[in-house]
From TrEMBL:
Subcellular compartments: Cell membrane
Signal peptide: 1-37
Keywords: Cell membrane, Hydrolase, Membrane, Protease, Serine protease, Signal, Transmembrane, Transmembrane helix
Any one Gene Ontology BP term: proteolysis
Gene coding for it: mycP
NCBIfam families linked to this entry: T7SS_mycosin
Protein name per its UniProtKB record: Type VII secretion-associated serine protease mycosin
Membrane topology: Single-pass membrane protein
Active site feature: 70 (charge relay system), 105 (charge relay system), 276 (charge relay system)
Family: Belongs to the peptidase S8 family.
Transmembrane segments: 368-388
Length: 395
């Protein structure tokens, strides 16, 4: 099928239309100007910032599945075709394929994660961080412009938690949550928190956008603030914290999130900003790490991204950028030096119970301790039996 290309050049920045609103929402804004399809690659500064091409010498994400919990994904987009698996719609109503308010945000995030371009040698369109990874779309929210959005918010409030569990049960290696609630009334939901912990235990790495509240009070955003989540803040092309990016204690790492070129179901390319795009870039990075080192656990991968991040803030981390800018190549390379976590039984502190037995040493005086303790135990047991037999019966 011949797909028409947008022919208008990417224009100057105009007023931004934010999608990050109260209740679970996508954290991205799109600029209305479109870009010439075959000029996209030169504008994808984020790939260079992440050192993605260096990582591609090892892997491009083949064999890894990234669940995109969002507004849906256009599986027929030329930059995504063959990379999108059959997913699940947990909303069940609202706009559909062909309608303007359908799958825009989800398609944009999927393109950042696993776009593979199109045309001769895939030289046109958007290239994602992990172009050989598979996308598992899970529709858990509606677009900002969907007339049914209000209905979905009131009747499908549990879709996010359900979607996280479903994605984990399908074997997703990475779960991308480029969405969140960073309103003043934002609060943790027990079902969502439990779903995140369930996914982590199943081996899925959970990545979420930190929020776009940097100029609106820096309110805590969920699901980014749930334990175990890799929460991603946004930086601009100069490596500085993007003004809109939320600053909070849960920030793990940062990634490109400003002036990001995104694919759209209308077959045009838009320039956007938001921690949504930054989270998608990190999900792509995790896909590369997972492809190269499938034995690593979610905890190890989170720590790996932190330890290999570049441009770390003074003191090692801060609430603006976490541990620094994600480096895909460094993470893939360093992952080869790690082994799978060993399962260890819970142990009490030696403060109360001492360090435990050491190597057997026949030259020390401790050799008699075991037999002596055994004999003492027999005597105590015999005494206990005699005392018990001598008790008066209970009445």
């Amino acid at each position: 099928m011949t797909v028409p290309r947008a022919r208008r050049a990417l224009g100057a920045r105009r007023a931004r239309r934010a999608f990050c609103v109260p209740a679970v929402a996508t954290c991205l804004a799109l600029l209305p100007a479109v870009a010439h399809a075959d000029g996209i690659r030169a504008q994808q500064w984020g790939l260079e910032a992440l050192h993605a091409e260096d990582a591609w010498r090892t892997t491009q994400g083949k064999g890894v599945t990234v669940a995109v919990l969002d507004t849906g994904v256009d599986a027929d987009h030329p930059d995504l075709e063959r990379n999108v698996l059959d997913g699940k719609d947990l909303i069940g109503f609202g706009a559909g394929p062909g309608d303007r308010p359908w799958a825009r945000h989800g398609t944009a995030m999927a393109s950042v994660i696993a776009g593979h371009g199109h045309g001769p040698e895939d030289g046109d369109g958007v290239m994602g961080v992990a172009p050989e990874a598979k996308i598992l779309p899970v529709r858990v929210i509606l677009e900002d412009g969907d007339p049914a959005r209000k209905k979905a918010r009131s009747s499908r409030g549990g879709a996010l938690a359900e979607g996280i569990r479903w994605a984990a049960d399908q074997g997703a290696d990475v779960i991308n949550l480029s969405l969140g609630d960073d309103s003043e009334s934002a609060h943790p939901e027990a079902a969502e928190d439990a779903a995140v912990q369930y996914a982590l235990k199943k081996g899925a790495v959970v990545v979420a956008s930190a929020g776009n509240g940097g100029e609106k009070g820096d309110h805590v955003s969920y699901p980014a603030a749930y334990p175990g989540v890799i929460a991603v803040t946004a930086v601009d092309r100069f490596g500085e914290r993007a003004a809109f990016s939320t600053r909070r204690w849960y920030a793990t790492v940062s990634a490109p999130g400003d002036d990001i070129v995104l694919a759209d179901p209308d077959r045009r390319y838009y320039e956007g900003w938001g921690t949504s795009a930054a989270a998608a870039a990190v999900s792509g990075t995790v896909a590369l790490v997972r492809a190269a080192h499938p034995e690593l656990t979610p905890v190890q991968i989170k720590r790996l991204l932190e330890d290999t991040a570049r441009d770390s803030p003074g003191g090692g981390r801060d609430d603006s950028r976490g541990r620094g800018l994600v480096d895909a190549a460094a993470a893939v390379e360093a992952g080869g030096r790690l082994g799978p976590d060993k399962l260890k039984p819970a142990a009490h502190s030696s403060t109360h119970f001492g360090p435990g037995p050491g190597p057997h040493d026949t030259g020390s005086g401790a050799g008699w301790a075991g037999p002596a303790a055994g004999g003492l135990g027999v005597l105590l047991l015999a005494a206990a039996v005699l005392l018990w037999r001598g008790r008066a019966p209970l009445r």
